[in-house]
């Protein structure tokens, strides 16, 4: 495989080669590029051959030297890019919101995906320093998870390169490379491009230097599902003198091949990769008191979410609304954040099949009410969002105890 894509400094960037390239058709955004990009105000290109408004989850460095690079959001806190073309941790990543403004997010860390036998791949997960607000229309891309690799063959591919350039091709298959250090541990999706083809789509493309890390998608029911990130290409004409060409074979690191590995890294922030076709499973949430509840005394409840189905439940979320504010809410594996004193949002990457996960809510002093009331809004990938309104009895304090409690004695 050519090493050209590893040479990605802005001065060397060429960007996608598209058969009949038209800047007005092949760029997702207008007013891009600009130096430095964060002083420009890009906008969705209404003339792009794809619906560019569906791709606001693709960001770029707000950096005066590396603003041309592209990388895709796969959770509110995570992006994917190429290991051989790492980001600089001091960068801010810019996304265009549906409000027409750029929104910047810092980088907390980046970690390469390690395969099942401990080898580093050319797929890297980047963790942002804060969550991207979905109300901005900057939404993560789900991964296309088909039953097997053969199911991907022949699927039309949307290829995103540097300079917000976009083209198309068709998935030809999956492969490993041999004797290619830095790349021969990665499962690749590949496609081919013949520069000499007389008949071909105007937007057919091949990768060029600088495109590394850019995302690739398959459109499903009008929505983009991510399948990989750009890694490199081979010139088959050089490898095979009998090849009619020049023909370029392009390689993208296969995201569907590493979903479990991505989940494992994302889990610490309470996320998993969203699957376009989540497996069916059954999740329910119940509430019980840890011990009998008594007004004016401390008490706690257990909120238990159970996965009774036969598959992992991904991206489990609970919104808890209490009538009386608890002093704390949390549990192992959960990330719980207070939206207000009485409203808490808890999430976790997943719950394994036939497993459960518990949140404990604690009150230092229970209210002088007959019941402890709350509502729970539950959601997970592939499941219908439901709201339950449980209540638990609170025993009344004896009159003297109540008077003392009210007097602070």
> What distance separates the N and C termini?
78 Å
Describe the global form: elongated
> At the third CATH level, what is the topology name of the largest domain?
Thrombin, subunit H
From the alpha-carbon coordinates, what is the Rg to the nearest angstrom? 25 Å
Largest sheet, in brief, is: 7 strands, antiparallel
The number of domains is 2
Can you count the helices? 4
Which SSEs are present, and which pair or pack?
Elements: E1 17-18, H1 23-26, E2 29-30, E3 43-44, E4 58-61, E5 71-75, E6 78-82, E7 92-96, E8 102-114, E9 120-128, E10 156-160, E11 166-170, E12 173-175, E13 188-194, E14 205-206, E15 215-220, E16 223-235, H2 236-239, E17 247-254, H3 259-266, E18 283-289, E19 293-294, E20 299-307, E21 313-322, E22 328-330, E23 335-340, E24 343-351, E25 355-363, E26 371-379, E27 386-388, E28 391-395, H4 399-407
Parallel strand pairs: 19-28
Antiparallel strand pairs: 1-14, 2-3, 4-5, 4-7, 5-6, 6-9, 7-8, 8-9, 10-11, 10-15, 12-13, 13-17, 15-16, 16-17, 18-20, 20-25, 21-24, 21-26, 22-25, 23-24, 26-27, 26-28
Overview of this protein structure:
The chain has 409 residues and is mainly beta. The chain folds into two domains: 255 residues, Thrombin, subunit H, CATH 2.40.10; 125 residues, Immunoglobulins (Immunoglobulin-like), CATH 2.60.40. Helix content is 6%, strand content 41%. The radius of gyration is 25 Å and the shape is elongated. The chain starts with 16 loop residues before the first strand and ends with a helix.
Report a brief summary of the structure:
This protein has 409 residues and is mainly β. 6% of the residues lie in helices and 41% in strands.
């Amino acid at each position: 495989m050519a090493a050209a894509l590893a040479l990605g400094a802005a001065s060397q960037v060429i960007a996608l080669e598209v058969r009949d390239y038209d800047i007005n058709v092949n760029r997702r955004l207008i007013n891009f590029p600009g130096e430095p990009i964060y002083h420009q105000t890009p906008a969705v290109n209404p003339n792009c051959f794809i619906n560019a408004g569906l791709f606001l989850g693709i960001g770029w460095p707000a950096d005066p030297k590396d603003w041309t690079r592209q990388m895709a959001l796969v959770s509110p806190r995570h992006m994917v890019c190429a290991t051989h073309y790492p980001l600089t941790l001091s960068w801010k990543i810019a996304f265009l919101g549906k409000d027409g403004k750029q929104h910047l997010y810092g980088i907390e860390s980046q970690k390469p995906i390690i395969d099942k036998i401990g080898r580093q791949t050319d797929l890297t997960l980047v963790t942002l320093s804060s969550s991207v607000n979905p109300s901005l229309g900057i939404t993560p891309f789900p991964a296309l998870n088909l039953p097997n690799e053969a199911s991907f063959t022949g699927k039309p591919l949307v290829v995103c390169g540097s300079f917000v350039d976009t083209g198309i091709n068709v998935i030809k298959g999956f492969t490993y490379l041999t004797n290619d250090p830095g790349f021969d541990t990665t499962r690749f999706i590949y496609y081919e491009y013949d520069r000499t083809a007389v008949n071909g789509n105007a937007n057919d493309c091949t990768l060029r230097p600088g495109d590394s890390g850019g995302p690739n998608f398959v459109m499903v029911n009008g929505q983009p599902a991510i399948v990989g990130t750009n890694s490199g290409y081979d010139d088959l004409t050089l490898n095979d003198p009998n090849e009619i060409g020049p023909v370029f074979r392009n390689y993208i690191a296969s995201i569907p091949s590493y979903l479990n590995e991505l989940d494992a890294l994302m889990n610490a922030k309470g996320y998993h990769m969203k699957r376009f076709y989540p497996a069916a499973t059954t999740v329910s949430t119940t509430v019980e008191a840890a011990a009998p509840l008594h007004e004016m005394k401390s008490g706690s409840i257990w909120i238990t979410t159970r996965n009774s189905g036969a598959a992992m439940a991904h991206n489990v979320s609970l919104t808890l609304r209490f009538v009386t504010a608890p002093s704390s809410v949390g549990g192992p594996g959960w990330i719980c954040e207070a939206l207000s004193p009485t409203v808490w949002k808890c999430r976790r990457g997943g719950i394994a099949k036939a497993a459960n996960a518990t949140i404990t809510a604690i009150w230092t002093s229970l209210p002088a009410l007959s019941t402890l009331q709350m509502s729970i809004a539950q959601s997970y990938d592939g499941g219908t969002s439901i709201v339950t309104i449980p209540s638990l009895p609170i025993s009344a304090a004896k009159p003297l105890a109540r008077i003392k409690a009210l007097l602070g004695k």
